[in-house]
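[Automated response] Your request has been received and processed.

Submitted sequence:
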Amino acid sequence: MKKNREKGLLGENIAINYLKSKGYIVIDRNYRTKIGEIDIIAIKSNYLVFIEVKTRSSTNYGYPYEFVNMKKQERIIKSSYIYMNQKDLLDFQPRYDIIEVILQKKAKINHIENAFCI
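Generated structure:
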């Protein structure tokens, strides 16, 4: 089994390739603030999409999205406000998605749009 950080980076790379294939423009990744981190930031239509990627080897201990609890959601939302202000992207509508990546023989991707909101 890969170390968690390696597994996470692999999942993020898979998610980025998936997003690009769906017409998203990835503008940033691993954006960090004192409050938290946002894995991927992308633009799709008029949305500025903040994406949390959860990568697992299996669903034996639950689905990956189940590990994005309220505290994590609040940190992502607060960090997104900082990002939008710093980059002067206030004209966009923010959206918060989760991408689950389950690493098996062929990676399984589940994109949950509007997974949580303000």
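Summary generated for your ticket: The first strand starts at residue 25 and ends at 32. The helical segments are 4-21, 70-86.
If you did not submit this request, please reply to this message.
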